[in-house]
Amino acid sequence: SFAYFTIKDRLPQILTRVIDTLHRHKNEFFEEHGEKGVEAEKRAISFLSKLRNELQTDKPVTPLEDELPDAALWNQYLDYQRNLSNGNGEPSWFQSPWLFVECYMYRRIHAALAQNPPIDNFDVFKEGKAQNFFESQEAVIALCTYFQELLKNIKDLDEKQLKEELFKLLQVSLWGNKCDLSFSAGEDSSQKSSPLQSLENMVPYILVNDMEKVWSLLVNAKKNRTERSNVRVDIILDNAGFELVSDLVLADFLLSSKLADEVYFHGKSIPWYVSDTTKHDFNWTIKQLQSANHMWMSRCGINWEGNLKKGVWVFCDHMFWTLPHDFSSMGGVAPDLYAELQKSNLIFFKGDLNYRKLTGDRKWEYSVPFHQALNKFHPAPLCSLRTLKSDTQVGLKPGQGEQIQASEPEWMVSGKYGVVQFDAGL
């Protein structure tokens, strides 16, 4: 299965890159922290080399030994996995659910640094995320330019035109999800060309297209809003780099078109899955745009900084997003986050990992309804914007998955197909 290939080949490659990154920054650690920095780097590398060996030789998954706030929840989850194995030995790297061991690896990478001050705040994935952003410059410029031109006469657009623009920007945000560094094991995955030119050609590759439902929900919320009730949209972010810019443009469009009054962004509280967005990445991206020597890029950055200051945009992180649990257990594990999401009129879940957690990462029949796969996770109406990079997919028409499978065996993992999949939550 794709899971086997991921654990066997991709994850060791990612660990090797992390070790390599730390090694390359040795001088920097020395300059900043003296011998202490170099000692910490050595300890972190030794911890990670041991981890890589455990992974490659299918050792049991061991409890976390650090004192970080989420360690107890992780170890409870490991006990739960032990009980699932019905006495068939300890859960090991190749004998456990993919979602669990993949998340566990990233949590152990975090521990390798967190336990080794003074380099405990070093993000081993930061360079890759920055590179992805800079290598996607042309696409970022094209998108910011298009959007700023659109803003000039957004007030004059009728409902049909607004809907067309929303659909365009939803698709840009959907295909922006192709820029995923954990998928390419850190190889270049930047967006090189203007994302707007190819949208027409990409429509046939959207396997579930619920954009009409998203539009109706937003238009009805707008019509039914009162003085006291703001229309709130939440975006559960995925990758930094070009994808994040496409999400920010979508969020700005929702505000500028009055389809939403406030947007809440949810990122990761620790570096995660190579290119996932942390608070640092979020702020860094807006700063980069602000200071760009391109008029429309800097205009976007300045406006977005303003949205954060005014409080109509809010960035939040929560440790639940970096736990191995699927989302159906959010109500029990993180009731505060679930209650927060219940305040939303619409939640966008970006990307593949979020989709895997929405559907419990199971090998579903393709035609199982999305609503059923969510397993009672319904804080608010939600929509998944996801390009397929793992072999879990639900909500297809009968025969649709089998038909593609016949001509394209790799269709579920190539990133070529996408879904805009909506669930009303009722």
From TrEMBL:
<dbReference type="GO" id="GO:0005634">
    <property type="term" value="C:nucleus"/>
</dbReference>
<comment type="function">
    <text>Metal-dependent phosphatase that shows phosphatase activity against several substrates, including fructose-1-phosphate and fructose-6-phosphate. Its preference for fructose-1-phosphate, a strong glycating agent that causes DNA damage rather than a canonical yeast metabolite, suggests a damage-control function in hexose phosphate metabolism. Has also been shown to have O-methyltransferase activity that methylates glutamate residues of target proteins to form gamma-glutamyl methyl ester residues. Possibly methylates PCNA, suggesting it is involved in the DNA damage response.</text>
</comment>
<dbReference type="GO" id="GO:0046872">
    <property type="term" value="F:metal ion binding"/>
</dbReference>
<protein>
    <recommendedName>
        <fullName>Sugar phosphate phosphatase</fullName>
        <ecNumber>2.1.1.-</ecNumber>
        <ecNumber>3.1.3.-</ecNumber>
    </recommendedName>
</protein>
<dbReference type="GO" id="GO:0051998">
    <property type="term" value="F:protein carboxyl O-methyltransferase activity"/>
</dbReference>
<keyword id="KW-0808">Transferase</keyword>
<dbReference type="InterPro" id="IPR039763">
    <property type="entry name" value="ARMT1"/>
</dbReference>
<keyword id="KW-0378">Hydrolase</keyword>
<dbReference type="GO" id="GO:0006974">
    <property type="term" value="P:DNA damage response"/>
</dbReference>
<dbReference type="InterPro" id="IPR002791">
    <property type="entry name" value="ARMT1-like_metal-bd"/>
</dbReference>
<dbReference type="GO" id="GO:0032259">
    <property type="term" value="P:methylation"/>
</dbReference>
<keyword id="KW-0479">Metal-binding</keyword>
<keyword id="KW-0949">S-adenosyl-L-methionine</keyword>
<keyword id="KW-0464">Manganese</keyword>
<feature type="domain" description="Damage-control phosphatase ARMT1-like metal-binding">
    <location>
        <begin position="6"/>
        <end position="404"/>
    </location>
</feature>
<dbReference type="Pfam" id="PF01937">
    <property type="entry name" value="ARMT1-like_dom"/>
</dbReference>
<keyword id="KW-0489">Methyltransferase</keyword>
<dbReference type="GO" id="GO:0016791">
    <property type="term" value="F:phosphatase activity"/>
</dbReference>
<keyword id="KW-0533">Nickel</keyword>
<dbReference type="InterPro" id="IPR036075">
    <property type="entry name" value="ARMT-1-like_metal-bd_sf"/>
</dbReference>
<comment type="similarity">
    <text>Belongs to the damage-control phosphatase family. Sugar phosphate phosphatase III subfamily.</text>
</comment>
